Amino acid sequence: MMQPITAKELEYLVDSMSNEDLLMKQCAVTAATASNEALRQQCLQLQHMHQQHYDALLHALQQHQQMAPTQPQQ
Amino acid sequence: MYQHNQTMMPQEDMAYTVLSDLKRVTREYATAATESSCPSIRSLFTNLLNSTLKMQGDLYQTMQQANMYSTASPALRQEIDKQLKQNQQTKQKTEQFLQQTTQTGGQFVQHVMPQQTHQAPTQPQQNPYYM
Questions:
Q1: Residue A74: inside a domain, yes or no?
Q2: Residue A30 and residue A43 in contact, taking contact as beta carbons nearer than 8 Å
Q3: Taking CB atoms and an 8 Å cutoff, what residues of chain B touch A35?
Q4: What is the least distance, in Å, from the CA of A59 to any CA of chain B?
Q5: Which domain, by its residues, includes A44?
Q6: Total beta-carbon pairs less than 8 A apart between chain A and chain B
C-alpha cells in the first residue's frame, strides 16, 4: 500500500542514502587496503550490499515522487 | 590504487570504523521504521534494518576470526546467580499483580502494584529529559 510520504519519512530516506553512500565508500577503501583476505572479501560483499540498499532507497523516493502534493496541506 | 606513501590507517581500524557505522545505521533504521507512516516505507526500513543487522554480524565474525576484536570478559557465575534470583522474584510478584488485576478488573491497582527490585544502573544515569 502506498501513500504520500511525510516530511519525516523524506528526512529518514535522505539520511539513510547518505549513510549508505558513506558506507559503500568506506568498504571500498577498506577492501582496497586490507591485507587480510577474509576481511577484503567481506568488505567487497558489504560494498555491494550498500549499493543495493542505496538503490532501494532511491527507488522508494522515485515511487513517491508522483504522489507528493505540490501545495502545503492543511 | 593506494600506492602513495602517506600513512594508512591499519586495516583493523578501518574495519572497526565500518563496524561502528553499521551499528549506528542499524539503530537509525529501527528508528525510521518505527516512525514511518506509509506502510511501504515502513516495510523498506524494516528490510534494510534486517539486512544491516546481518551485515554487522557477518563483519563482526570476520573480525573476531582475524583476531581484530577482543571479546569482553565473561560474566561471573555469582553475578548471574544474583540476577536470576532477583528476576525470578520480580516475575513472581508481577504474576501475583497480574492475577489480582484480572480478578479486580483493575481496581485498586495503585495499591497492589509491586515494585521492581531496584538495581544500580549499569551506565551513569542520564537525565531522561535531555535529548
A1: no
A2: yes
A3: 11
A4: 10
A5: 9-61
A6: 107
> Cβ–Cβ of B25/A3 closer than 8 Å?
no
Residue A4 lies in a domain: no
Look up residue A43 and give its three cell numbers. 568488505
In a domain, A67, yes or no: no
Mutate to test the interface with A, among B21, B34, B44 (most CBs of A within 10 A): B44
Residue pLDDT tens, chain A, 74 long: 678 999 999 999 999 999 999 999 999 999 999 999 999 999 999 999 999 999 999 999 999 999 999 998 76
Distance from the Cα of A5 to chain B's closest Cα (Å) equals: 6
Among residues B81, B78, B86, B94, the alpha carbon closest in space to that of B118 is found at B86
Provide the H-helix boundaries in A1-74.
7-33, 37-65
Residue of A nearest to B15 (CA): A30
- The tally of domains found in chain A comes to 1
Beta carbons of A45 and B30 less than 8 angstroms apart = no
User: So where are chain B's domains?
Assistant: 11-65, 77-112
